[in-house]
Amino acid sequence: MKRALAIVTVTCLGLLGPATSLGQQTRAPQTPATQIADELGTLASDAMRGRGSGTVDELRAARYLARELRRIGISPLGDAGGYIQDVSGTFNFRGGPKPWHTRNVVGVLTGSDARLKDQVVLLTAHLDHLGVGTPVKGDSIYNGADDDASGCVAVLQLGRALAKGERPKRTVLFVFFGSEETGGQGDQYFLRHPPLPLDHIAANLEFEMIGRPDPAVQPGELWLTGYERSNLGPELARHGARLVADPHPAQKFFQRSDNFALAKRGIVAQTVSSYGLHPDYHQPSDDMAHVDLKHMEQAIASLVEPVAWLANSDFKPEWVAGKAP
Predict the structure, then answer these.
(1) pLDDT in tens, 89-143
(2) What is the predicted pLDDT for the residue at 27?
C-alpha cells in the first residue's frame, strides 16, 4: 500500500484566527510552503489516479487547475469563456495517426502597458501523467508528483505572484498542456488553435520536474534545457535566476517536453528543471513521499523576481545564431 498523505484541517478554537460574529473561525492566510504542499498533494494524490492522458482523471486535474487560476485572479482564455480548451482531432502517434481526446487549461493576465501588452510571456507545464498501470510492489497508481505536478505547482505559484499588485506590462499566458506523456497532443492543438497570436509570444518557459534537487548542479540551482541555444537563460541568470546549463546533454531533454513543439515554430521556448535522473521516474514511487518540498519552495521563490522582470521588460529573447531547432 502507498503511504497516503493526509491533509488535516485544524479547527480548534484559537488556532485559525479570530472568531467571526457567527462564532465561526477564519482561516489563517496560507504561506507559499503550505500552498505548494496543498497543490502538490491534490494533483499527486491517489484520488487523481495518476492523471492519465486523455482520461476522466486528467479532466479532473484540469478542472482543479482551472479553479485555482480563478482563485488567483487570472482570467480564463479557454473555450466558451472558460479555462479549459478541449483538444480533439487526429494526432500522430508511434503507430500512426489516430483520433485523440484530451484538454489544456489556459488563463491570462493581460498586460498593462499600451506598447508591451501585445508581447506575451508564456508559462507552461503538463498536467497529465501515466494514470493507473502495471503494479510495482503492489502499487498501480503512477502519481506523477515530480512529473509533472511539480511543474504545474510552479506555474500556479508564479501566477499568484504576478497577479498580486500592479499588473505586468507584458501579457502573461498560463497554459497547462494535456497528453504530453503520449506525444504532446495538447501542445500540438495549442499551436493549431492558439488563444493569442503565436508571433506575439516573446518567450516560453516550461516547468518540468522540479520536485527534487539535482546532485549534478549546486544546491539551489535549476537547469534550463538548451541553455546555450538562446540568450534567455543567461539574461534570466543575470537578473537573479539560479539557472545553469542542463548537465545531462546526452538525455536530449530540450527535445523531450512541450517546449520543443513551440521551439520548432520559432518561439524561444525552453524548460526549467532539476531532474537528476532519479529511479522513481515513470514509476508509482514518484509520489509525495519522495518530493523535497523545501527545494520546491526555494526553487520557485528564486524565479519569481526574474520572471517578473521578464514580464515587465522589453527584452526580446533570441536564438543564438545556428542554434535554433
Answers:
(1) 999 888 889 999 899 999 999 999 999 999 999 999 999 999 999 999 999 999 9
(2) 57
Note the pLDDT of residue 6. Answer: 35
Distances (CA, A) of 124 to 8, 155, 180, 190, 203: 30, 7, 12, 12, 11
CA distance 167 to 324: 32
Alpha-carbon span 203 to 152, nearest angstrom: 18
Q: Which contacts qualify for 217-220: CB closer than 8 Å, 24 or more apart?
A: 217/244, 217/247, 217/274, 218/244, 220/298, 220/299, 220/302
Ranges of the chain whose pLDDT falls below 70: 1-28
Residues 51, 43: contact at Cβ < 8 Å? Answer: yes
Residue with cell 548537465: 247
Which residue segments constitute the domains of the chain, with CATH numbers given? Answer: 50-312 (3.40.630.10)
pTM of the model: 0.91
Report whether 190 contacts 222 (CB < 8 A): no
pLDDT at 18: 33
CA-nearest of 103, 236, 209 to 150 is 209
Q: What is the pLDDT of residue 14?
A: 32
State how far the Cα of 149 lies from the Cα of 82, in Å rounded to an integer: 22
- In the chain the first and final C-alpha atoms are separated, in Å, by 44
Exposed / middle / buried, residue 265 (Cβ in 10 Å: 0-12, 13-18, 19+) = middle
What was the pLDDT predicted at 95? 85
**Exposed e or buried b per residue across 175-196, where buried means at least 16 C-beta atoms within 10 angstroms of its C-beta:** bbbbbbbbbbbbbbbbeeebbb
**Shortest CA distance to 255 belongs to which of 191, 173, 184?**
184
Q: Which residue has the cell 543567461?
A: 234
Residue 284 burial (10 A CB sphere; 0-12, 13-18, 19+):
buried
